[in-house]
Amino acid sequence: MTLSAPRSSRFHRQRSARTRGFTLLEIMVVLAILGLLVAVLVRNVGGDLERGSQQAAGLFVKSTMALPLTTYKIDMGSYPTTAQGLDALINAPQSGNGRWKGPYFESTNGQLPLDPWQQPYQYRFPGTKNPRLYDLYSKGPDLTADTDDDVGNWQ
């Protein structure tokens, strides 16, 4: 019986040495791997968010505003001028001659929504990209008009 006691204490010492925990090096390796994973995820999600913003702006300029602008043209005989802008869809222009039957675009605060980058949408009539129609576009993520990242109804 005395032989089993030393085995038990030796087993106890071996077990406690194995379950002491992780070394500092092991913890640093795990943290480095987690940091890399987070960086990759953030980069991918950021790209997805940017693509989503561009798609939302494209949907607004190509689809959402097409009906209000066409209805305005039917009532008024022409699209709003560049000077009148998209505000003519919400407020009657000075030169409406009683033909304005708007508002053509319903908004909660009496203003048009901003693009995904919190900038007003840009409007030109006649358009430079669409000479027979209008140009309606967002300046895009660089917030500068007439650059390659613009999101317009001509694309």
Automatic annotation (TrEMBL):
Residues 46-154 form the Type II secretion system protein GspG C-terminal domain. Gene3D superfamilies: Glycoprotein, Type 4 Pilin. The chain crosses the membrane at residues 21-42. GO terms for biological process: protein secretion by the type II secretion system. It comes from the Bacteria. InterPro entries: N_methyl_site (IPR012902), Pilin-like (IPR045584), T2SS_protein-GspG_C (IPR013545), Type2_sec_GspG (IPR010054). GO terms for cellular component: type II protein secretion system complex. The keyword Transmembrane applies. The keyword Transcription does not apply. Keywords: Membrane, Transmembrane, Transmembrane helix. This is Type II secretion system major pseudopilin GspG. It comes from Synoicihabitans lomoniglobus. The gene is gspG.
